[in-house]
């Protein structure tokens, strides 16, 4: 992650509210996380997943070693038995591709999982304890410059327009009923 305080970047999208006093930003949306699997895999699954704690009865895609401090990786480590993990990757895109290929279930941000037509939610609702925030942030002294205002308007406005997808409120219809 580039440092705004060290002027390595003028603008950033961050998963948390800025804490540094020299930064200014606005919240664009909450970021929801859900458990996803390939539609075909979920339709064949005999054991329903009603709550996230049921995940250990299924093949799960997780994070690789050295990912302590990543909320999603930590949550999986607390919630899923080690034997349930069948594949690990430190890239959410690789995890999504593995889930799409039917390797197992993956914990993904709803904006990735709900947007993928070959995936469906294995657990109908997002995971409440993983709800985060998406912020657009800049240096306080740059917030009124034309280029920064335009970026905030265009990119910030575009992401705000995807509010429902980012917050996971449109994905329930994409869930697959399990037999």
Explain what the structure shows.
The chain is 26% helix and 23% strand. It is α/β, with parallel strands linked by helices and 179 residues long. The chain has one domain (1-179): D-Maltodextrin-Binding Protein, domain 2 (3-Layer(aba) Sandwich), CATH 3.40.190. Residues 172-179 have low confidence and may be disordered.
Considering the chains and any ligands shown, give keywords for the structure.
179 residues, alpha/beta, D-Maltodextrin-Binding Protein, domain 2, 5-stranded mixed beta sheet, 3-stranded antiparallel beta sheet, 6 helices, 8 strands, elongated, disordered C terminus
- Structurally, the number of domains stands at 1
Could you tell me the CATH topology label: D-Maltodextrin-Binding Protein, domain 2
Low-confidence stretches: 172-179
The overall average pLDDT, rounded, is 87
Helix content: 25-40%
Total beta-strand segments: 8
What is the N-to-C succession of helices and strands?
Answer: EEEHEHEHEHEEHH
Q: Which CATH first-tier class would you pick?
A: Alpha Beta
CATH architecture: 3-Layer(aba) Sandwich
Q: Describe the sheet with the most strands.
A: 5 strands, mixed
C-alpha geometry: elongated
Give the structural class.
alpha/beta
Number of helices: 6
Query: What is the percentage of strand-forming residues?
Result: 15-25%
Give the N-terminus to C-terminus distance in angstroms.
43 Å
Radius of gyration, CA atoms, in whole angstroms: 18 Å
Strand order of the largest sheet: 5-4-6-3-7
SSE layout and pairings?
Blueprint lengths: L10 E4 L8 E9 L1 E6 H6 L15 E3 L8 H9 L5 E4 L3 H9 L4 E5 H4 L5 E3 L10 E8 L6 H15 L2 H4 L13
Parallel strand pairs: 4-5, 4-6
Antiparallel strand pairs: 1-8, 2-8, 3-6, 3-7
């Amino acid at each position: 992650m580039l440092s705004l305080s060290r002027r390595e970047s003028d603008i950033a999208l961050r998963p948390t509210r800025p804490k540094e006093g020299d930064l200014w930003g606005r919240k664009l949306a909450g970021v929801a996380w859900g458990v996803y699997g390939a539609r075909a895999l979920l339709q064949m699954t005999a054991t329903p997943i009603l709550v996230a704690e049921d995940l250990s009865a299924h093949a799960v895609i997780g994070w690789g070693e050295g990912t302590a401090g990543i909320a999603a990786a930590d949550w999986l480590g607390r919630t899923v038995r080690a034997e349930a993990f069948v594949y690990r990757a430190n890239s959410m895109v690789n995890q999504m591709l593995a889930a799409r290929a039917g390797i197992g279930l993956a914990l993904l941000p709803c904006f990735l999982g709900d947007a993928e037509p070959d995936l469906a939610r294995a657990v109908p609702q997002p995971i409440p304890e993983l709800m985060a925030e998406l912020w657009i942030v800049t240096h306080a002294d740059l917030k009124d410059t034309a280029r920064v205002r335009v970026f905030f308007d265009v990119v910030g406005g575009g992401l705000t327009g995807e509010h429902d997808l980012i917050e996971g409120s449109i994905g329930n219809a994409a869930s697959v009923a399990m037999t």
